[in-house]
Specification:
Blueprint (H helix, E strand, L loop, with lengths): L1 H23 L4 E3 L2 H9 L6 E4 L13 E2 L8 H6 L4 E5 L4 H9 L4 E4 L4 H15 L2 H19 L9 E5 L1 E2 L2 E4 L4 H8 L3 E2 L8 E3 L2 H7 L3 E4 L4 H5 L8 H4 L3 E3 L2 H5 L5 H12 L1
Parallel strand pairs: 1-2, 1-4, 2-3, 4-5, 6-9, 6-11, 11-12
Antiparallel strand pairs: 7-8, 8-10
Helix pairs in contact: 5-6, 6-12
Length: 270
């Protein structure tokens, strides 16, 4: 008799545990960051996504979701009307929203990838949270495999000296601790902003001229403006016409498309 009761109790706990696990998976989520939106679709969790920001433009399906604002301002009325089980963001970018969401009782789930490997790991974290573990593991593995395949084609030689201009007024760049700096290192290039004290920030025009990059990458669609800078006319990159505009969405989002950025970077450099 005691054995039967024990089995009944164990069965009840298992059933309750499975019910709790199923209920714990959020069915309706809102993304506050374009990179998170991309990652949600990359792990086949798009059906759970009911709201995005106005900057969430990739993939195309993201543009079919309700817009709840942008990275700086949220329309709380619209957000609450979607009745989300959770809001998902990158804690490096949306920390200022977290307290307001907590105040209205909305669960916040965050990731904070800063490197290529951390982006792959964040896919797995999202997958575990959204009940898409298998799809997330496959997406993460594709990122890692693709990186290895791209880097296998990098010549065994010293890469060029590169300046990445992330903004032009004031001139800004990416230093150590940023994923763009990491991509340059992975591709065998040297970043002239290697001694920046912050991952992202202003960079001296005088240093650009002094360090004379062989390649300049622009993430701000301002090629013509750069080529017209008198002070830059003698730079090696300008003289050799090795100034390139790159897609800022691909090069500036911590999503699976960092693999696209790496491939584009290797094509440009070599």
């Amino acid at each position: 008799m005691k054995r039967q009761w024990a089995l009944l109790i164990l069965t009840a706990f298992l059933v309750l545990g499975m019910a709790f696990s199923a209920a714990a998976v959020p069915e309706r989520v809102v993304s506050l960051v374009p990179s998170v939106t991309e990652s949600i679709f990359a792990i086949d969790a798009g059906e759970q996504l009911v709201g995005v920001t106005s900057w969430c433009d990739y993939p195309e399906e993201a543009q079919e979701r309700e817009v709840v604002g942008d990275a700086f301002n949220l329309n709380m009325e619209v957000l609450l009307s979607l009745e989300p089980d959770a809001v998902i963001g990158d804690s490096n970018l949306v920390a200022h929203h977290m307290e307001a969401l907590k105040d209205v009782g909305i669960e916040m789930f965050t990731i904070e990838p800063l490197t290529y490997d951390e982006v792959a790991e964040s896919l797995e974290k999202l997958g575990a949270y959204l009940g898409q573990e298998e799809q997330a593991a496959e997406a993460a593995e594709r990122m890692r495999t693709r990186r290895d395949e791209i880097l296998a084609d990098v010549p065994d030689q010293e890469g060029p000296l590169v300046f990445v201009e992330t903004w032009n007024e004031p001139i800004s760049s990416a230093g150590p601790g940023s994923f763009l700096h990491e991509l340059l290192e992975m591709a065998g290039a040297s970043n002239i902003a290697h001694d920046m004290k912050e991952p992202w920030g202003q960079f001296s025009e005088e240093l650009v001229i002094e360090r004379d990059p062989e390649v300049i990458l622009l993430t701000n669609f301002n090629y013509d403006e750069v080529m017209q800078r008198d002070a830059w006319s003698e730079l090696t990159a300008v003289q050799n016409e090795r100034v390139y505009e790159v897609d800022p969405d691909v090069f500036a989002r911590t999503s699976t498309r960092l693999a696209d950025a790496l491939e584009a970077l290797v094509d440009i450099l070599y």
